[in-house]
Amino acid sequence: MEGHILEERYSDTLKRYTGPGKKIIASFHGQMDQDRVSMLSYAAEHQLDNEGARRSTIKRIFNILIEMLQNILLHSASSEKNDNPFYVVLAQNMDEYLLITANVVRNEVAQKIRGTLAELKKMNERQLKNHYMEVLSNDQYSVKGGAGLGLITIAIKCNNQFVYEDVPVTENTSLFIMSTIITDK
Amino acid sequence: MKKLYIKETLNSPKVLFDPSKKRYEISGKSFPENSKTFYEPVFEWISELTVADADNMQFSLTFDYISSSSVITIKQLLAKIKSVCDQGANIQVLWHYDAADPDIRDIGDEYRKLVGIDITLIERPA
After folding, report:
1. Closest-CA residue of chain B to A149
2. CB B27 within 8 A of CB B62
3. A101-117 per-position pLDDT tens digit
4. Cβ contact, residue pair B72, A70, below 8 Å
5. Contact flag A146-B75 (C-beta cutoff 8 Å)
6. Which contiguous run of DSSP H or E holds residue A167?
7. How far is residue A1's CA from residue B52's CA, in Å, rounded to a whole number?
8. Cα B118 to chain centroid, rounded
9. Chains A, B: CB pairs < 8 Å
10. CATH of the domain at B95
């Protein structure tokens, strides 16, 4: 069932960014592992370079993409190492780039991420930066190895232009979808 | 002091601490799956430093990219270096950044404030 919803959303996303002024720059659907993080980040970087994106924009996208992919790596609904299906789409819509990722997480994880993102969304640039410094000065890793700095980094790099939703998959799991918008400036 | 060499990979930087050549460098992209595990040998190497060994040592850090979990680990690494400085060693930390990449410069600047260690920021031509 989870595979079905994930594939459906992936295909919808690809369709949404096909048409005049729109373009899919890179996309992938499959299982997540660390090699995938490297492979997809470098592929996206290379592709953006070919597309003539500004170097500073490429760096920002590379940065956000790695944080989004590493979040997926950290939060899988399955305890099996090789069972973390996800998708990622890097699309262009006029002068904006969109990075969309989705994977299946446990409901309590979705709730926690949602709560953190809602808090970040209320902050302005200065507050985000202060919050970043505060978390960095505490430097405590969570059990999963993250420290919450990843989501703050994403929020800063995309100037807080992100949206998220979670779609119920089973009683205990949801498909967590996150989209960020990066302006080529 | 032993030589420490870790080969660069797609997601982890090269580490070269070579006392015979007085070269102490970390360079490349840093986004390993587990940054704590990756930097463990570096922490161990610094733990074994005496003040005499470390005096006038120059650490050269050149990152093209640092993920958020690596940002924390590298901060802890700098705090470890600072503890050797606090014991009396004169250590220089050089933080190289690409002119087109103010984010990496900013991270070096943040470390300076948070760790209280003297870091020289050096711009590389774009």
Report:
1. B68
2. yes
3. 999 999 999 999 999 99
4. no
5. no
6. strand A162-168
7. 63
8. 13
9. 65
10. 3.30.750
Provide the token pair at B103. Answer: 């984010």
Domain count, chain B: 1
Closest CA to A36 of A62, A2, A6, A69: A69
Q: Residue B54's domain spans which residues?
A: 4-124
Q: Least CA distance to A130: which residue of chain B?
A: B110
**Residue position matching structure tokens 């690809």:** A14
Best of A33, A153, A157, A159 to substitute, by most chain B Cβ atoms within 10 angstroms, is A153
Cβ atoms of A159 and A183 closer than 8 Å? yes
Choosing among 3.30.565.10, 1.20.1260.10, 1.25.40.10, 3.40.190.10, the CATH entry for A2-183 is: 3.30.565.10
Q: Is A43 on the interface with B (CB under 8 A)?
A: no
Distance from CA of A178 to the nearest CA of B (A): 18
CB A183 within 8 A of CB A95: yes
Chain A CB contacts of B109 below 8 Å = none
Q: Average pLDDT of B78-89?
A: 94
**pLDDT at residue A142 tops 60:** no
In this prediction the ipTM stands at 0.89
Contacts of A127 (CB under 8 A, 6+ apart): none
The encoded tokens of residue A127 equal 């507050």
Question: What tens digit of pLDDT does each residue of A16-61 get?
Answer: 999 898 999 999 999 998 889 999 999 999 999 999 999 889 999 9
Tokens, residue A134: 């505060």
Cβ atoms within 10 Å, residue B96: 19
- Give me the mean pLDDT over the A62-80 stretch: 87
Q: Which residue of A has its CA nearest to B64?
A: A59
Decide if B36 touches A, using CB distance below 8 A.
Answer: yes
**DSSP-derived secondary structure for A109-151:** HHHHHHHHHHHHHT--HHHHHHHHHHHHHH----TTS--SHHH
**A42, A133, A145 ranked by CB distance to B10: nearest:** A42
